[in-house]
TrEMBL record:
Record-linked InterPro entries: FkbO_Hyg5-like_N (IPR049368), RutC-like_sf (IPR035959)
Species, as recorded: Caldimonas caldifontis
Domain Chorismatase FkbO/Hyg5-like N-terminal: 10-132
Name the record gives this protein: Chorismatase FkbO/Hyg5-like N-terminal domain-containing protein
Domain of life of the native organism: Bacteria
Amino acid sequence: MLWPAPALCEEWLASGPLSDGRLGCVSYRSNGSWVFGTACVDDREQGMRQAAQRAYADVFQVLDREGCPQLQRLWNYMRAINAEEAGLERYRRFNLGRAQAFLDAGRGLEDGAPAACAMGTAQGPLTVHFLAGRHSPLAIENPRQVSAYRYPQRYGPRSPTFSRAALADLGEGVHVLFISGTASIVGHESVHLGDVVRQAGECLDNIDAVLAAALPHVGGPWTLAALRERLECTVYLRHPEDLAAVREVISGRLGVGTPAAEAAVYLQADVCRAELLVEIEAQVRLAPQEAS
């Protein structure tokens, strides 16, 4: 963690009695309507493609068991994400395994895919955190970008399986917009190579575009400014020395001293493309009584 200095613990709360479970490589907790869990696979034993396929296959079995088949949000973490493994980048091998698990489970690879991120760590097993529920989220795409699942083959033999955002219905009029890891990409091309300040600004431009695309679907008198004020951002930096510069960009765009800027969490991680220096993921909780 780069900022804030004290260690943080993120908590996900649910109503009603909870049950713990384990299946294969997955540990999880469920209240009957929602499942939150983690899959861990040591990819050193079998390679990234097979590890990803196993992790997702076990996740899908858990969702079927618990009657919560609809993935809402995924967080994928893997060591050496940009390194080569048997002639192919490890992230691209991950995409192969993930896609195969989706296909084996009879799930589509395109429209309706969940929100997700994929980040590189220094060490540790392939780790997949997931949130799933009974009802399908509404997938949101960014008009400034080609949908990730439709990337051309120059980015690997299988495109990534995620949507730019997913709007989840929590019931009683409350929604959460999960915004996938968002980088300095326009169309399908990485832009502002070598310039972390401009890349950070492009990330925020893309997040604004996702918020605007989601706005017609959230209901109530929400405005783009109100959504932006409620952003809860996690910022991943490839190089820790870029922290001050990127914090300045985010404070300038979200407002110095605003809750959105002050609550942002900054972590060191590698981004899924080697030329990208920063990635931002976010979420926005939307309750009718909070609309302004």
